[in-house]
Amino acid sequence: MLPKKILLSVAGILAGALLLSACSSGDDGGSPAGGALASGSASASDTPVAVTFEPAGGAAVNPATPIVVKAANGKLLDVTVTNAAKGKPVAGKLAADGSSWTSSEPLGYGATYKIVAHAQGANGKPVEQDNQITTLSPKKQANANLIPAPSAVASTGVGVGQPIVFSFGKIAVKNKAAVEKALTVESTPQQEGGWYWIDDSNVHYRPKEYWKAGTTLKVTAKIYGVDFGGGVFGAEDRTETYKVHDSWIAKADGTTEQMQIFHNGAMVKSMPISMGKDATPTHLGAHVISDKQANYTMDSCTYGVCPPDPKAYRSNEKWSERISNDGEFVHENPNSVGQQGSSNVSHGCINLNDANAQWFFQNMGLGDVVEVTNSGGPQLPVWDLYGDWSKSWPDWQAGSALK
């Protein structure tokens, strides 16, 4: 038999072995639970902060693209973006958790910007990262010109037939879909409407039916940085508001030789007229008033009919309101008073006597509608300034670049 001391010693050794076995992971390749990392490994807090930039850098950056700076395994302390030539800082916002910074204003065309970001890693170590970008330089810039000019109708409003027109001047838009996506018209109350490209430089917006009286129209062109094609980019964004006034619609009938005026749907006046003679008939369809002049010189040369052509004319007329771009007006004409109400003798205009012309001039204005029937003339072309209503709604929708 072993001595008592030896037995106690062996028992202690066995107990220690059992205790070690109970605390081990059971995996010979693992580390003891709660123990130190194996030799040669690093904690997450030892990894430095990583700062990234979007756009990454270089040239030909679209100035409408925001600059975004991000930090991983740490946080941003501050970011400065500066126009290198002007020294002007670019506004931006740092996320509450310091994970990112985003510019909040557009950049300029053809400019270089220096970016300096200060960040701190989870290990507490500060880091500075620099970057530089250069924005693209367009061959040309396109402006979104609105017709009618909002300032010209701010006090009067527009009529229920008024299309919203964006004209890009002499710029031929190649990327019509991209430009159209940047254009919006919000109507209050809401009414269905759509865009139609009259040609490569002009796009019109009209509702499915005439605007409701009292409608507010918010018109927006977010074209800055939009690629028009051919090296042309949008010059600047624009937002304007139009107000639609009461409904005024004139209905001119070549059979009865009368024109009836409707205010908010109720007929308020009827007057005798003389429209275009057989050789120069007035166009059929809905015309929209685009201009009004108390005294106006009408010259057929403005639309290509000049002397010695027997159809040429030049005369001074009163109370004139233009209803198409090829010389059609509603105006006073004392020379045709004897034929007004009985026959058509004009060059395409709608003639009135002095009293009726003054009344018409005082009550009808830009955007109001003159619907012509039974004139013997062709349909007013869609391109003839405001021939927009000559198209059926499906045909109008087909004129969109996004159809």
How would you characterize the overall build of this protein?
It is a single chain. 31% of the residues are buried. The radius of gyration is 38 Å and the shape is elongated. The chain has 4 helices and 27 strands. The model is unreliable at 1-42 (pLDDT under 50). A hairpin with a 4-residue loop joins strand 19 and strand 20 (258-263). By secondary structure, it is mainly beta. Helix content is 10%, strand content 37%. The termini are far apart. It has a 5-stranded mixed beta sheet with strand order 21-20-19-27-22, with no helix packed on it.
In short:
It contains four helices and 27 strands. The chain is mainly beta and about 400 residues long.
Oligomeric state, counting identical vs distinct chains: single chain
Strand arrangement across the biggest beta sheet: 21-20-19-27-22
* Residues in helices, as a percent range: 10-25%
Our measurement of the CA-to-CA distance between the termini, rounded to an integer number of angstroms, reads 104 Å
Percentage beta strand: 35-45%
SSE topology sketch:
Layout: H1 4-23, E1 50-54, E2 58-61, E3 68-72, E4 74-83, E5 92-94, E6 100-103, E7 112-121, E8 126-135, E9 140-142, E10 145-147, E11 164-167, H2 176-181, E12 183-188, E13 193-197, E14 202-207, E15 216-221, E16 227-229, E17 232-234, E18 238-243, E19 248-253, E20 258-263, E21 266-272, E22 285-288, E23 291-299, E24 314-322, E25 329-332, E26 350-352, H3 354-363, E27 369-373, H4 393-398
Parallel strand pairs: 2-8, 9-17, 19-27, 25-26
Antiparallel strand pairs: 1-3, 3-6, 4-7, 5-6, 7-8, 10-11, 11-14, 12-15, 13-14, 15-18, 16-17, 19-20, 20-21, 22-27, 23-24, 24-25
